[in-house]
Structures are given as structure tokens and as C-alpha cells.
Amino acid sequence: MTCAFADPREWLLEISPTIQMQSWQQSQVYAQPSSRWCAYINQICLNAFLDWISTEDFPRASVWYSFPGTPAFWEFVNGTAILLEGRRVVLIPSEAIDDSELEISQEWVDIPSWAADYYLAVQVKPDGEWIRIWGYTTHKELKSLAQYDSVDRTYCIDARHLTRDLNAFSLSYQFCRGEELKAAIAPLLQLSIEQAENLVQRLGNASFRFSRLAVPFMTWGSLLENEQWRQRLYQQRQQPQSSQVQVNLSRWLEGIYDNTWEAIEIFSLFNSNSIAFNFRSSFGLNAGSIKRAKLIDLGMEIESQKVVLLVAFILEDSQQISIRVQLHPANGEYLPVNIKLALLLESEEIIQEVQAREQDNYIQLKRFDGEVGERFSIQITFDNHQVIENFVI
User: Fold this and answer.
1) 144/215 same-domain check
2) Residue spans of alpha helices (H) in the chain
3) Closest CA relative to residue 257, chosen from 290, 304, 299
4) Same domain, yes or no, for 222 and 85?
5) Which domain covers residue 259, as residue numbers?
6) pLDDT one-digit tens code per residue, 34-52
7) Same domain, 308 and 366
8) Residues 385, 268: one domain?
């Protein structure tokens, strides 16, 4: 149902309370808050659009993929694909007030089986109970006119290049059915089963928040395009956070360490800088400190970049400890420029972050305290690669 005072060139659709409730309930299958919200916005957009378009010019409109396949898409990308009598249309919802541009994830453009004929810009205001479809473009126009952002892996097209009159969309659909609307798309890599299994295992950790940016797009696109691998990756990421590996610091007090956490002195033997000395001198640790280190591989595509994560704590009383964290180069003299070290709460909120500059031989977080039972994470980010270590006190 359209609103009476809408711009006649746009489609303004109401969101009924029933659609809101159903969309929110369906989004609860996701383990992460960010994925749940993405799913909620896309589900609202999907339901409102299908309810309206099926009563207008396209009674046989349908979602391109159906449950249980739909959730796997929204775990990784924003957007919803609709089939309208042989053409594929992707709705790109956004809560942004600014409509000066349309931003589309690369997956919807450069995965051959995902690419659409049309892309519709949708402004979503769930609290205001409406969605506004305000413009559209074609795949061919997108590839020739949009700017590609290699950091976010998105295509961004200026609003001046969009067709703002949605009446033209219906006319184009009716009278230009034989026109080719897609540009040429480069084929993706062919992954072996072993490569796919390794990627699913590595990227399936739900704490890995930027999985779509962790490997080259040709690799990621091949993994995501395969329905079986996409579903397995999604299902693994839905495991409860408690099932993810957590380092129990209380066990360190008992002398019980995880296999990957070694004595600091071991790493000093292979490093031109004395990691053990830097750690002691910068923190003034006493004999009662508990300290271990772990070798971190920043990604299989940059094998030479490895760092050492150092964690130490002092027992302040029976319930509270004081924690210190540093990051050192594993080989060589300095850390990679712009590598980041961050402290995250259990809610995934970043409360501390430090970034390496040129010729930094280590970086460190400010000392922080924790109580028995509390959880936190240490995040290391370099370019598109991210590693998260989860801890419980």
C-alpha cells in the first residue's frame, strides 16, 4: 500500500505491525546482533515489497532463494534478490537519511550467479513503519558508472546516475525484455574441496566479524557462490559463543595452559628484540605475574606477517586480576605499520584500541581489570585480516 502524499516518482510502502513482528522473529536465528539487525531490515524490505508488487504488475513475483537458504545470505551481505518474470532485482536497504548515493556489496555484482538485472535503492525506517524505494540502476550501468571501493568491497554509484522515476522501471520491464542489462563478469576461481574446508573452518568463527574481507574476493566469491559451502559456513557461525574457543585465565593460575600459549622466553630466542625484556620493563611485572605468549598468523595470503600476542596478569585479590596485553613482531625489528590491537567487551564493543606507527617494535593496551567469570576479547587487525582471541577470567 502506498502513502497518499508520496513523491509520484517514488514507491513509498507501509510496514504493517504484523510484518515488523514476523521479520523480527525470523531474524532471531542469527547468533550475532549485527547479523540479526541486517536480517531484520532485509526481511522488512522483502515482505513489504512482495506484498505490494504481487498486487500490482507482477503477481508471480518471488524471492530468488527461499528458506532455509535465505539466512545464509544475510549473515554475510546486505541485500535481497527478487525474481520478477525472468529478471532478477536486488533490493538494497539502508537506514541512511542521505540519499546522495547507492552502495552495493561486491557479491551482488561480481558473483556471476548472483548478479542482477536491476538494483533498487531502498530507504528503510522501521520505527516509522515505511520503506521508500527512491531509485534504480542496471548491472551494466553500475559497472560503468559506479566507483569501486577496494577496502569495503562495495560499488558506490552517485544518485545522479540513478533513474529516480520508478514509473520508468515498470515501463522498462514491460517493453525492454529482450535488452541485455548485464555487463561481462570475470569468472571466479575454482576451489578444491580441501581449500573450501579450510576456509569454512577458518572463517566459521563468529568472532571473526569481517569474514567477507578476510580473503581475496575471487576466493571469497567462489566459496559463497557454492550453496553447500555457504550453508556450512553460515551454520558454523551460528554456534553459541560459548562453543568458540576461550582462553581460561583462571586455569593459568593452576599452571594449566592451552597448547598454543608458550612461555615468553621461547619467543625471545627467535627475535632480535628481547620480547621478555620489553614486557618486563614496560609493565614492571613482579615474580607473582602470570604471563604467556602466542604466535599469531595474520592470514594465509600474507604468510610472512606473523606477530606475537603477549598477555600477563597479576592477582589483585581472590576475585579480581589486573591484565596487560602487548603485541610484538615475530620476526624482524618492527611491527607492520597500521596493525591494530583492540580490547572488546563480551558485547563486541571496542573500549580500547591502539595502532602501530612506523618503527614501532611493539604496541600495548592500557592496563585493565577484570573479575572472575567476566569475558573479553583481544582483536588484532591488519588490512583486511582480523584475528580475535576470546578470554574468560
Assistant:
1) no
2) 17-27, 33-53, 70-74, 107-110, 139-145, 167-175, 193-203, 217-225, 227-237, 249-252, 264-268, 275-283
3) 290
4) no
5) 245-392
6) 888 899 999 999 988 888 8
7) yes
8) yes
pLDDT confidence of residue 96? 86
In a domain, 47, yes or no: yes
Instruction: Quote the pLDDT of residue 97.
Output: 85
- Give 152-211 pLDDT, tens digit per residue: 999 999 999 999 988 888 777 776 667 788 999 999 988 888 888 888 877 887 666 678
The reply to whether 117 and 266 lie within a common domain is no
Any domain includes 308: yes
83: CATH: 3.40.1350
**DSSP secondary-structure letter at 272?**
S
Q: How many CB atoms lie within 10 A of CB 385?
A: 20
Same domain, 38 and 166: yes
In tens, the pLDDT along 322-351 reads 999 999 888 767 888 889 999 988 777 889
User: Full-prediction pTM beyond 0.90?
Assistant: no
Residue 267 shares a structural domain with residue 154: no
Could you tell me whether strands 306-315 and 363-364 are parallel, antiparallel, or unpaired per DSSP bridges?
unpaired
End-to-end alpha-carbon separation of the chain, Å?
Answer: 53
Strands 87-94 and 118-125: parallel
CB 45 within 8 A of CB 14: no
